[in-house]
Every structure is written in structure tokens, then in C-alpha cells.
């Protein structure tokens, strides 16, 4: 596996080794021992799966407050997404900054999103299956979000009129969001 570090400390783009032939391919998308050797020590306890039928579906920007924050390991098993993370750690040198990545069935890339980041994605193709691991169980009382179109963030999404859930239409801007994440330089 190849690890590509982000400008947002803690965020990692992961390229698994893939072995292909005329039948298709094989890859290990997760191996706890290999991840630990690469410095990824989170213990994942739950797998989640979402299907988005159309291009232009935007899910996000989601996070869970501490102490129930979630580290996520995300990949697109079918189709392609534009995956975005926003640093919400107060005091971080990159607080309020974002980065976006294309994750697809073709590039097989995965994104590690640590606690302290809001996360969301927009489907670039239809029929997108997104799989992700988390290291904490979902906690409705800690569930929060920030506006996908927060002008202060200026996220460059691949759509202007996304397909949103009612919940995702009404998140506050980062400056008004409930946020108890604090930067800890490691």
C-alpha cells in the first residue's frame, strides 16, 4: 500500500496494491497488520455502505462531536465520488481548510478521515456504492454537520444544484456549528 499524506495533518490517501488479469482484479482493501505498520492504528468496529443511484448526490458535511467522533476509512466500490474533508480542529494551522479527492472503482483509492474533520462526498457517476469503516458506533446525540455550500469554506464541488437530503439542506456554516474538536499537535 502507498500512503499519500495530505496538507491536513492526519488525513491520508491510501492506494492499495491491486493484482489484475483477464478475469478482473484482487486487492486487500484492509489489513490491520499492514495498516499498523503504516502508522494507522485505529481499531475499526463497524462497516457502513451507501448507494447513490444518480450522479450529483451530495452527502455531507457530517461529523460527530467528541467524545464519540469517528475516524472513517472510505472507498468507492462502484462508480466515482468527489470526497471532501474540512479541518474542524480549533487551533489547527489548517482550521477551516478543505481538500477534495476523487475516489473511484478504477483508482481504488481510500481516504482516512480522522476525528476532528467534517466529511462529505458528491457522486460523479450514477450507481455509486460507498463503503466505509468507522472506529466508533454512530451516536445520534453527537451527530452534527456543516453546510456543504458554506461560502467561507469555498468548497469547489463538481455540481451547483446537488441532490440533498432534507437534513443536509439545513446544516449551519462552520462558524456557527457546534464544535468541540481541539488541535493536538502529535
In a nutshell, what does this entry contain?
This protein is mostly beta strands. It has helices at residues 32-37, 166-169; strands at 2-5, 12-15, 18-21, 24-27, 46-52, 58-64, 72-78, 80-87, 98-104, 110-113, 117-123, 128-134, 143-145.
Descriptors for this entry?
single chain, 186 residues, mainly beta, Jelly Rolls, six-stranded antiparallel β-sheet, five-stranded antiparallel β-sheet, 2 helices, 5% helix
Strand content: 35-45%
CATH class group: Mainly Beta
Record field, number of beta strands? 13
Rounded to the nearest angstrom, the distance between the terminal CA atoms is 23 Å
Structural class: mainly beta
Q: Helix proportion of residues, in percent?
A: under 10%
Return the CATH topology: Jelly Rolls
User: Sheet with the most strands?
Assistant: 6 strands, antiparallel
Rg: 16 Å
- Give the CATH architecture: Sandwich
Strand order of the largest sheet: 1-2-10-7-12-5
Describe the global form.
Answer: globular
Amino acid at each position: 500500500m502507498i500512503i499519500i499524506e495530505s496538507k491536513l495533518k492526519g488525513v491520508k490517501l491510501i492506494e492499495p496494491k491491486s493484482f489484475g488479469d483477464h478475469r478482473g482484479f484482487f486487492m486487500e482493501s484492509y489489513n490491520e497488520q499492514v495498516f499498523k505498520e503504516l502508522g494507522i492504528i485505529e481499531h475499526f468496529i463497524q462497516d457502513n455502505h451507501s448507494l447513490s443511484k444518480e450522479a450529483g448526490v451530495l452527502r455531507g458535511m457530517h461529523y460527530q462531536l467528541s467524545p464519540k467522533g469517528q475516524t472513517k476509512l472510505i472507498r468507492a466500490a462502484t462508480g466515482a465520488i468527489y470526497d471532501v474533508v474540512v479541518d474542524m480542529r480549533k487551533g489547527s494551522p489548517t482550521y477551516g481548510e478543505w481538500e477534495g479527492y476523487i475516489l473511484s472503482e478504477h483508482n481504488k483509492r481510500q481516504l482516512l478521515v480522522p476525528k476532528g474533520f467534517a466529511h462529505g462526498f458528491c457522486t460523479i457517476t450514477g450507481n455509486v456504492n460507498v463503503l466505509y469503516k468507522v472506529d466508533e458506533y454512530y451516536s445520534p446525540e453527537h451527530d452534527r454537520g456543516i453546510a456543504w455550500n458554506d461560502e467561507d469554506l469555498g468548497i469547489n464541488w463538481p455540481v451547483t444544484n446537488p441532490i440533498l437530503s432534507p437534513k443536509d439542506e439545513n446544516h449551519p456554516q462552520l462558524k456557527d456549528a457546534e464544535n468541540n474538536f481541539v488541535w493536538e499537535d502529535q
